[in-house]
């Protein structure tokens, strides 16, 4: 529910007064996450790459609707987690972030693709010269970013209905990959998530690069969430490095970089993503929902201003969800002196969703409550033109017409 209904008494009143057809929207049928699994032939990497892509259900009222995109590394492990988080948090009865397309990138050679430069220095600071060292293939991170920027993102944009706002998320080696992208190609994504980034790589190479690159004139309108946990034997280095990175960002006071650091001492390196990815999404979209507003002040102008601010922040046009506006209007109708505010929200809904019979039917109900039967009749007729099978609207139209 919107935060306007946090008050328990008002929430109960809202539930009692809301039509069952609207309440049903808060209890959707369970459907497992399904994904397109594609094979992308990469010239940059000289290999075929498997990619997972989740898309939100088609919006029948807005069939051309487009979505921001979240790209998550270690796709075999974290794709389903991120898809479920995004699917739940964007539900109409939760509504704290937008619906998103989720792109999961599984690994073929993780050390090669997710390290920024070649190094044979292991975590303990010693060279690994063994014949089977996993570090031999390291250093392909920038090439991998080229694959994402010149092949994967263009493919997704060409085959799916995407918005320009994109998030890049990774854990451990994936964490230093997202930070490397922010430092070297900041405009590729709008927001970055780095969970327990392996800053120890090549004796702190990325910390030195961050100290060099993170400046006010290089980062504009970006967000980054970064975190660490109880890393076991690696704890001192991981935690110290994250504090160093946070210090660089905090002391620079970079106006164009919205940032948050989180520490999870009760979690391990491998359990941390469960909490951290959730917190990262809540940070990136913390302003998504409407703030609490007095019913006498809550009208279409207030809502439009809020969504204009979201559109500016995320770089694409964000439209107020129809069901949420309907639910809010239902609540306002029950509040003394707020009927005109409810009507303004419902009028806005008919403008945003001109193919919605529900929007016009609800507006007709509000006009009827105000005593404006002529406008109610117009709305009911419009609703029936969109959906002739609405028997309850036919009955309302008949009653409203008889009374004119």
From TrEMBL:
Keywords: Hydrolase, Repeat, Signal, TPR repeat. GO terms for molecular function: hydrolase activity, acting on ester bonds. Pfam families: Esterase, TPR_2. Residues 1-24 form the signal peptide. TPR repeats lie at residues 357-390. Belongs to the esterase D family. This is Uncharacterized protein. The lineage of its organism: Bacteria, Pseudomonadati, Bacteroidota, Chitinophagia, Chitinophagales.
């Amino acid at each position: 529910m919107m935060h306007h209904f946090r008050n328990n008494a008002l929430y109960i009143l809202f539930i009692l007064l809301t039509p069952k057809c609207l309440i049903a929207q808060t209890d959707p049928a369970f459907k497992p996450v399904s994904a397109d699994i594609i094979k992308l032939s990469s010239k940059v990497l000289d290999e075929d790459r498997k990619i997972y892509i989740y898309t939100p259900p088609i919006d029948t009222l807005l069939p051309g609707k487009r979505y921001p995109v979240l790209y998550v590394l270690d796709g075999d492990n974290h794709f389903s987690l991120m898809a479920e988080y995004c699917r739940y948090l964007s539900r109409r009865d939760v509504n704290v972030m937008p619906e998103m397309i989720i792109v999961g990138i599984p690994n073929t050679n993780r050390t090669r693709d997710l390290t920024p430069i070649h190094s044979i220095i292991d975590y303990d600071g010693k060279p690994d010269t063994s014949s089977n060292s996993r570090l031999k293939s390291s250093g392909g991170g920038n090439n991998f970013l080229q694959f994402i920027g010149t092949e994967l993102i263009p493919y997704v944009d060409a085959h799916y209905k995407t918005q320009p706002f994109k998030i890049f998320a990774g854990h451990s080696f994936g964490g230093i990959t997202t930070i490397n992208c922010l430092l070297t190609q900041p405009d590729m994504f709008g927001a970055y998530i780095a969970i327990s980034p392996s800053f120890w790589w090549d004796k702190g190479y990325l910390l030195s690069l961050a100290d060099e690159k993170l400046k006010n004139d290089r980062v504009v309108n970006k967000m980054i969430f970064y975190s660490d946990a109880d890393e076991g034997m690696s704890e001192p280095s991981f935690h110290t490095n994250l504090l160093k990175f946070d210090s660089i960002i905090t002391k620079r006071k970079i106006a164009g970089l919205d940032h948050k650091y989180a520490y999870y001492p009760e979690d391990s390196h491998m359990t941390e993503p469960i909490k951290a990815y959730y917190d990262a999404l809540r940070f990136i979209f913390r302003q998504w929902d409407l703030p609490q507003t007095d019913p006498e002040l809550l009208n279409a102008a207030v809502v439009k201003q809020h969504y204009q601010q979201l559109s500016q922040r995320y770089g694409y046009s964000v439209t107020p969800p129809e069901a949420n506006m309907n639910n809010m209007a239902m609540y306002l109708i029950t509040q003394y002196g707020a009927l005109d505010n409810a009507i303004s929200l419902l009028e806005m809904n008919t403008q945003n969703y001109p193919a919605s019979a529900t929007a016009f039917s609800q507006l007709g109900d509000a006009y009827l409550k105000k005593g404006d039967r002529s406008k109610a009749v117009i709305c009911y007729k419009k609703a029936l033109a969109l959906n002739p099978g609405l028997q309850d609207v036919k009955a309302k139209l008949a009653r409203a017409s008889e009374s004119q």
